[in-house]
Every structure is written in C-alpha cells, then in structure tokens.
UniProtKB/TrEMBL annotation:
This is Glycosyl transferase group 1. The lineage of its organism: Bacteria, Pseudomonadati, Thermodesulfobacteriota, Desulfovibrionia, Desulfovibrionales. Pfam families: Glyco_trans_1_4, Glyco_transf_4. The keyword Transferase applies. It comes from Desulfomicrobium baculatum (strain DSM 4028 / VKM B-1378 / X) (Desulfovibrio baculatus). Keywords: Transferase. InterPro entries: Glyco_trans_4-like_N.
C-alpha cells in the first residue's frame, strides 16, 4: 500500500514538473540542498529545472547533473524583468514552483499572484524571525512552507503561516570517506566566515586551552581579515591553517574533531551530518536547531553558546578520552543514515502530494 501510494505520488509529480528557484549568486549550503533535491528528482524521472540569475554557480552544478536550467536576468526579487522571465519559464499548465531563499520566496509569491494555478512551495532554512508586511505575506501566499527544523517551523508558524512541514537538510552519504589515522588531534571548523558561524567564540575557546591543537579553518567570507586579526591577538596564528573554500568531503578525513560553534540563525546544520558521515566527533553549540540533531554525550558533545570556556572543556575531553571519541563516532555513523538525500527526496514527494490540488 505504501509503495503504491508513493508510485502514484511520483507519477503525479512527473506529470506536472517542478521548477526550483534560487536567487543566490553564491554556492553554499542552501544551493547545495537545491542541487541534492533536484538531482534526486531528475534521477526519478521528474521534469525538473533550476532557475537562477545569470552566472549563478548553481546553474553550472545543475548542468553537470543533466538538469535543465533557466536563466534570470537579475538577482533582485522585485525586478520586473525577473518576474517576466519567470512567468515565461513556467509551463502554461499547472506546475510546482519551489523557492529556496528569501528573495526567491518574494519573486515566487509575485509570480503566484499572476498564476493562481501554481502550487507554490517555499523552503525556509534559517531560524531568524520573519519581518513585518510582505516578509510574512510572501510565505503566507505559499501553498506549503517547508522548514528544515522544528525551531524554524515555530518561527514561521508564529508569523501566521498555517501550512508547514519539517524536512531536515540532507547530504549525499557516499561522498564522504571515513576519518584517517594520524591526524595528530587536528581540529577543524567548516563554514562561511560570517558572524552566525561562531568562529570568534571558537578562537576564544582555543586561547583557553593548555594544549592548543593544530586547527584548520575551512571557508571564506567577509570576516576573514577580522578573524585573522583576532587569532593573532590571541596568540593563535601559528596553530591555524586558513584553508579557504574547499569541499568538506576532502577535509573531513584529515580532522580528529569537528567544531560547529554556530552563534545564531542555524537551520539544520549540514556540516554536523557531514562530520558524522566521515566518522569525525562533533562538538556543537546548544542552539535549538543543533539540539534537534545532536544528543549530548551520545552522538556528539554540546557546549553553551556564548561560553568559550564550555567549548574549551569539551575539546579537552575529546583530547583525553579516546573511548568517548569512539562512542560518539559510532552513534553519529548510525544516525546520519536518516539524512541521505534520497530520504529528503521521499519526504518532499509526500509534501508535494499533500499540497497539490485534488
């Protein structure tokens, strides 16, 4: 019965197709999630396309998988040329328009005002509060808002959105190799060099350690110069290697600890799941979205956000307790199986089916 229902849902989806809309001109976690989902849908035979501004890296990523693309002339959500282009791109028959960032949600909602036959799906990936006015109404205009965590769903529902679902972000499990021996206790942090990722409190924690490990900082962003100055002021420069933007799958096997010190705004951390897949013990902040993934002392360690001393204590524990490391790694490897992209695809299939008109 379940298989028959899934087959019917897939047949319906294949018939009407999906256009994924993302207005980001970077390729970070959100865009990667779009490609994972669109790729799974494409493999399943769904008529799928990715629409994004001209030059956006997500378009090249889609083409590499054989996914159709549609190019928009501008990045701005309110630009009339973008609205005209999107309306031309969309099939004339009923279809699904799925937006993946705040600007795309605006453009998608505007298109929906002109095309009431669209099934408009928004995905919300961050836990920041929605603003007033249009910032809320664009989500209320959606047929369904998919939230990547329960915390995000609470925020969205608090803004008056009534039709929601929770589908966590995913990874492609077979991209990740297991941690290699001989990493000499190396600690890594992976993510954009931006305030919400928590590099500053991580560096303060390192400065409290009696034995400072070798550290890889992986990522790029606007805070790079400020963070390098902070590291120098804390006497950490000789311990830190700035790796720039590198695929996490190439970095994780060379780490013995992965720190995820998110300070605010986290939705459903992809890097936590990546650490689990690579068999690297994870230490994360106690943001609610992180705690939906990490069970303290079971599949990771948790520290108090804003308390560098708490993070320093957890790092010391991992350095001193190999049995704890193995326990956390084993649990993480088991838990990450629930977050493969194939499972996300199946969850979205059910969500689409619930949103489509009968």
């Amino acid at each position: 019965m379940i298989r028959q229902a899934a087959d019917r849902e897939m047949a319906s989806l294949a018939a009407i197709g999906v256009t994924h809309l993302d207005l980001g001109c970077e390729f970070r976690g959100g865009q990667r999630q779009v490609i994972y989902l669109a790729g799974e849908q494409h493999k399943a035979g769904v008529e799928v396309r990715v629409a994004a501004p001209q030059g956006a890296p997500i378009l090249d990523a889609a083409l590499e998988l054989g996914i159709k693309i549609a190019t928009l002339p501008r990045r701005r959500d309110y630009h009339p040329l973008n609205l005209l282009a999107l309306l031309r791109i969309l099939p004339s028959s009923p279809t699904i328009l799925h937006t993946h960032d705040a600007r795309a949600a605006s453009l998608g909602a505007l298109a929906h005002l002109f095309r009431r036959d669209l099934t408009l799906i928004h995905t919300r990936r961050v836990s920041y509060a929605l603003g007033q006015g249009w910032s809320r109404w664009k989500y209320r205009l959606g047929t369904l808002v998919v939230c990547v965590s329960r915390e995000v769903e609470d925020v969205v529902r608090g803004a008056g959105v009534r039709r929601t679902a929770v589908i966590p972000s995913a990874i492609v499990l077979d991209r990740y190799s297991r941690r290699e021996p001989g990493n000499f206790g190396r600690v890594g942090i992976i993510g954009a060099l931006s305030p919400q990722k928590g590099h500053a409190q991580f560096f303060r924690a390192l400065s409290l350690l009696a034995h400072v490990p070798k550290v890889w900082v992986v990522g790029d962003g606007a805070l790079e110069a400020d963070l390098k100055r902070q590291a120098e002021n804390l006497g950490l420069s000789e311990h830190i290697a700035w790796k720039g933007r590198v695929e996490s799958s190439l970095i994780l096997p060379s780490l013995d600890v992965l720190v995820v010190p998110s300070a605010h705004g986290e939705g459903s951390s992809g890097v936590i799941k990546e650490g689990w897949a690579a068999g690297v013990p994870v230490v994360c902040s106690d943001l609610p979205a992180n705690l939906e993934l990490v069970r303290d002392e079971v599949n990771g360690l948790v520290f108090s956000n804003g308390d560098p001393a708490s993070l320093a204590r957890q790092l010391d524990r991992l350095r001193e307790n190999s049995a704890l490391v193995e326990k956390l790694v084993s649990a993480g490897i088991l838990d990450v199986a629930a977050y493969d992209a194939s499972g996300m695809h199946a969850a979205y299939l059910r969500a689409y089916a619930s949103a489509l008109p009968v």
